[in-house]
Structure formats: C-alpha cells, structure tokens
Write a sequence for this structure.
C-alpha cells in the first residue's frame, strides 16, 4: 500500500469515528467538496486526494464542538479556537494526536499537527447579489488577515503581487499596530458574527468557504447516503447541482497539473514517541 493510500485510510478512520458520534447524538453532517466528488465519481477518495471535508448545519456544528470530544476515541481531538488556544482556523478539524501531518504554513505553530479531517459550519446568509458579494468579501478579508498572522503562510505565498501585501499585514498590522490584539478573540468575534448572520439569514448559503458559490440552504441540508470506501455516509441529496456549481463538468478527470493537494512537509501515521493512554 503506498503512502497516500495509508494516509487516506487513516483519514477514513477519523471520519468513521466522527460519524459514529454524530449518529449517536443526533448531529447532522454531509460529506462535501472533494469528498462528495470522490463519492459520486469514484465511490471513494479521488485517487490523488489527501483530505476529507464534511459540513454541518450551524446548530449541529456548535453541538459537535461542545460535546464531540467526550465521545471520540482518546487519540482524536477537536481543533477549534474554543478547544485549542493557538488554533489558527475559524472552522474545525478533528486530528489524530498519535500522527503527524505537518503543513508549511503551520510549521511554527504550537498546535496539534496530527492527521485530520475538516469540518465546516453551514451558515445562512442574506440573499441578493449585493448581500452575497458583501459577505463574500467580508469572509475573504477576514481569511487574508487571519492567515497572514502566521509567517509560515506568508513565506509560502506564490503570487508575486501578493507577497508584499502578506508581509505588510504580518509585520505592520499583527506585529505592529495590532500587536496587543488577541488572535483567538479576533477569530471568535468573526465566528460570532457569522453565527448571528445565520440566525437572521435567508434561505441562502455558500457551498464553499472561499468561493462565491451559493445555493439554497434548505436544499443542501436535504440528505441522502453515498457509498464511500465501502461505507455509507450522508451527503447532499442534490449532488449534481452542488458539484456542477463547485467544479463544472465534475465527471471529467482533470489534467495532472490541476490536481490539488496539501503537499505536507511531513507525514507520520504512527508516532512511537507518544505515550499510550
């Protein structure tokens, strides 16, 4: 078994454990993004994919953050600003602390660096082109500011026109004008803003956290089961609509140069230096 396949199997173990918690605690989830595409096109992982994405309606997401770790195996930890002090993301991950999946943007961070799956909240937003564009830019600006807190992320910026912006945000804002701003509080304020918008929002939701792709909230939360690596998992019933909006002609295999992965610096699936619990 090659190394990528071993990584996929480890991620599937994490997904299976998370889904067990969801099923036992009335927490709704759907597989999304590349995981949904893999289920539809390959009945499992996209052959070159190295992650798993699931989404939860906001109410289920908050419930999972609050209680999930009580029911997960002891080696699995929820990484979220509420559960880990230096968590750099506004969304959540479930990581296996007995493994390593080191990304270049996180190399200097004192956080759990284990193999993970991503969990994103499904938040309602206001409908209408102006409101959608406004929220898209608000999320985008937050993401840029938050990511540029980490010098590892800034060093990894490839677009030359963005390098100066990244270093300016890091050194002038975070290390200068905002040096007394608590990053955890910065993330928390934005998360609370998004939650409040969900509570007052319309039947509209972003299908992806970093793209202006929207659909009806009521439609994406309608679920059916999909075969993925020999197991069945919940996904959006309207998969064709979702995948066409996200990927266009999604059944066409992309050229090798367009196959995106995390490209980790280091992966270890069994860490012998971690004490048994």
């Amino acid at each position: 078994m090659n190394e990528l396949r071993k990584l996929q199997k480890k991620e599937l173990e994490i997904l299976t454990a998370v889904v067990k918690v969801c099923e036992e605690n009335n927490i709704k989830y759907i597989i999304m993004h590349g995981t949904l595409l893999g289920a539809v096109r390959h009945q499992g992982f996209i052959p070159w994919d190295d992650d798993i994405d699931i989404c939860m309606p906001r109410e289920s997401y908050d419930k999972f953050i609050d209680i999930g770790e009580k029911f997960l195996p002891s080696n699995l930890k929820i990484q979220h600003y509420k559960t880990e002090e230096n968590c750099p993301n506004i969304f959540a991950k479930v990581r296996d602390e007995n493994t390593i999946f080191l990304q270049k943007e996180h190399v200097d961070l004192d956080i759990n660096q284990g193999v993970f799956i991503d969990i994103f909240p499904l938040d309602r937003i206001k409908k209408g082109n102006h409101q959608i564009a406004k929220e898209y830019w608000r999320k985008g600006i937050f993401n840029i500011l938050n990511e540029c807190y980490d010098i590892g992320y800034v060093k990894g910026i490839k677009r030359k026109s963005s390098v100066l912006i990244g270093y300016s945000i890091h050194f002038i804002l975070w290390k200068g004008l905002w040096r007394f701003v608590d990053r955890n509080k910065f993330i928390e304020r934005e998360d609370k803003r998004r939650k409040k918008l969900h509570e007052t929002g319309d039947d509209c939701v972003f299908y992806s956290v970093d793209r202006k792709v929207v659909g009806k909230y009521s439609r994406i939360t309608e679920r059916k089961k999909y075969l993925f690596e020999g197991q069945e998992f919940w996904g959006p019933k309207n998969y064709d609509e979702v995948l066409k909006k996200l990927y266009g002609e999604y059944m066409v295999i992309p050229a090798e140069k367009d196959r995106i992965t995390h490209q980790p610096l280091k992966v270890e699936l069994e860490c012998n230096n971690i004490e048994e619990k």
Residues 3-268 form one domain. Confidence is low (pLDDT under 50) at residues 273-277. Residues 206 and 214 are 4 Å apart (CA to CA).
